[in-house]
Amino acid sequence: MPIDPILDPSSLARELSGRHLINGELVASQSGKNFDVLNPATGKVIGQAADGDVQDVAIAVGVAKKAQKDWAERPARERGKLVAECGRVLMSHTEELGRLIALESGKALRTESRVEASVLADMFVFFGGLASELKGETVPFNPNMMTLTTREPVGVVGAIIPWNVPLLLMAIKVAPALVAGNAVVVKSAEDTPLAALRVCQIMQETLPKGVLNILSGFGPSCGGPLVEHKDVKKVSFTGSVETGRTVYKAAAEKLIPVTLELGGKSPMIVMHDADLDKAIAGAVGGMRFTRQGQSCTASSRILVHEKLHDAFVKKLIDKVNALKMGDPLDEETDIGTIINRKQFDKVRSYIDIGEKEGATKHELSALPTDSALADGTFVRPVIFTNVDPNARVAREEIFGPVACVFKFKTFEEALELANDSDFGLAATVWTTDLKTALTATKRLEAGFVQVNQNLVVQPNLSYGGIKLSGLGKEASLESMLEHFTYKKTIILNME
């Protein structure tokens, strides 16, 4: 029976409480333990998540390993059709999923959560259509030998997802892995386990049992055992640099491939000839202010030519000041909350650090006045000017609504500032000069570079970084072929 959308997110959160999804069924953790899931806008408990551990991992991986064999035997196009159908079914749940992710993440429904739910569905449709590209090559090795290659699934994939964009970042791991013939065990983020669980539950309408499973739990007790399990043959992780290193080390012990999408401190270069209004809109969107800056690609280092600097800062302040902060489920809200109290304290501490380092603070928008939101983790967006490029706020990833604006004189100076970072995920340049644009795209040290726009992750745009921002690409045909299959060489001697 099809699952009908439930538009009351509080009711849906209660219905999903205390469950993993293993072998197509919602089940309690082996220990029987749960942990609370909070609404960051109110600080109140909205449900519980199953507290997974090594026992749950063992069961889920065992189920996935068994299911993967039959799944891999299905024709690739048949797998693709089923994954694409999952996307179409998920599209009918866009409003439901948007409301649930707004409730548990604090992201505004209109500006963020509903959009994420729709792109999630599109990602499954996109990858479903790529199934026919799982093909090999013929090799002219010897005329008396038929030599060819095939693409084979790796087996069981462990997918560990973050809390900032959990649905989309789950989709760019799960969809290509499934189409390529793998089974998947997802480990959801502690703060946002419910919407991801709902997505996997909905997909059970279409997929064979066991090919997609999801566990909730904490990193050391659930994520760690998943990475270390002997039958997990590939790990795809999105999260912090520190945790990424831990995942990489554990996977290295087994010599299995890993995809890592980690942090960012992305530069935005605004040249003297840039369209000012477009650049301002690009800064507001690129800094992800409507997501409270909780984005790896956030343009948190904005480099503006001295001729435009003052006008740019004034207009940017006006634009951000006009954004409304409030209840994430309110259609009038532009900006929601920070994910949790720990992250709230971290962001506030960086704002204090920025002031102590001598930067000029512009604290913008306004905190909500509704008493029901008094305990919410709301942080006013901050723009720092007069920032020392070596200051901590200029170099460390804050993962909050804090942007630094710098003034530069020459293009060469801007490029040097932009590349002077341990990170290399994303970068943008704003100019009307073609030579400047092409030079910047060539010399900027980042894996995802845009000119005169600042798009988020989209289907068919190869996405991933260099330096401390990670390893590998996602969201593209390349990611499906290179990260979720291995190439087998076959030689037939015809003599």
Automatic annotation (TrEMBL):
GO terms for molecular function: oxidoreductase activity, acting on the aldehyde or oxo group of donors, NAD or NADP as acceptor. It comes from the Bacteria. Belongs to the aldehyde dehydrogenase family. Transmembrane segments: none annotated. The active site is at E261. InterPro entries: Ald_DH/histidinol_DH, Ald_DH_C, Ald_DH_CS_CYS, Ald_DH_CS_GLU, Ald_DH_N, Aldehyde_DH_dom. Pfam families: Aldedh. This is Aldehyde dehydrogenase. Residues 27-490 form the Aldehyde dehydrogenase domain. SUPFAM superfamilies: ALDH-like. Keywords: Oxidoreductase. It comes from Thalassospira lohafexi. The lineage of its organism: Bacteria, Pseudomonadati, Pseudomonadota, Alphaproteobacteria, Rhodospirillales. The keyword Oxidoreductase applies.
